[in-house]
Amino acid sequence: MTRDFKQPTTRLEDLFEYKKAVKGELNLALARKEAGIDPDSVELHLKARVDALYEQYKAELNLDDFYFFKTLEELERFLGAAGCFDQDLIRRTIAHENAHRAKAQELGYEVKGFGCFLALDEENKIRYHASTHFKNGHLMAREDFRAIALAPDDPSFTDLYG
Known about the structure:
This protein has helices at about 10-35, 40-55, 70-80, 85-105, 140-150, 155-160, and strands at about 65-70, 110-120, 125-135. The protein is α+β, with helices and mostly antiparallel strands. It has one domain (about 10-160). Strands 1-2-3 form a three-stranded antiparallel β-sheet. Strand 2 and strand 3 (about 125-135) form a beta hairpin. Helix 3 (about 70-80) runs antiparallel to helix 4.
């Protein structure tokens, strides 16, 4: 089953600013956990910070522009059905997210699915940002997070920095 494609309203630069801010908080939480601070309090603080960031950015982020898929095949069908993305780009995206999935599973994390945020670039062209989502209920170790982020042969900007 393919979901209907909707014209996005989220701006790509706003999405990336939000993702960079969240990743900054995540990196801080990972460092606090490594420093021996109580993991439960680190996770509670992280959740509160991410919730506050969402409140800060929610006017710019249209959640109707976010799609979630249980499988990479569903994500691939959705992107193909949208009709505005290059097939080679879609193929590389699926391979990229599959590398994240494979590394996460190798490290013992369960993948719950794949996200796709549609957004408009500065020229109002539709772009997308795919992501892999985990079932793990606790903050993973920094080395695991880094290994998963760097698993693809071509890490994205958000894998590296944001």
